[in-house]
Amino acid sequence: MKNKDFVSVLQRQAKEQSRLHEERLLPKNVDWLTSMIGNYPWQFILVLSVIGALVWQVFF
């Protein structure tokens, strides 16, 4: 009985994964940005933190 439940859960998850794989969260024209974030996450976080710090210093 547990195997049948496990198989049904796996099938539901596989169906959900295939649906998520087909849908795009972001438009195709920002693929360069998502690729950069994926390849250089720490550098991207560093740039965002520097920009955030500069904005904080200027406006607050």
Structural description of this entry:
With 60 residues, the chain is an all-alpha fold. It has one domain (2-59). The chain is 82% helix and 0% strand. The chain has three helices and no strands. Helix 2 (31-39) crosses helix 3. It is elongated and about 60 Å long. The chain starts with a helix and ends with a helix.
Which secondary structure elements does this structure contain, and how are they paired or packed?
Blueprint: H1 2-22, H2 31-39, H3 41-59
Order of helices and strands: HHH
Mean pLDDT score: 90
Largest sheet at a glance? none
Kindly give the count of domains: 1
* Global outline: elongated
Query: Can you tell me the residue ranges where pLDDT is under 50 for at least 5 consecutive residues?
Result: none
Helix tally equals 3
Distance between the termini: 62 Å
Give the fraction of residues assigned to helices: over 70%
Strand content: under 5%
SS-derived structural category: mainly alpha
Number of strands: 0
Query: How many whole angstroms does the radius of gyration measure?
Result: 20 Å
Based on the model shown, name its key terms.
60 residues, single chain
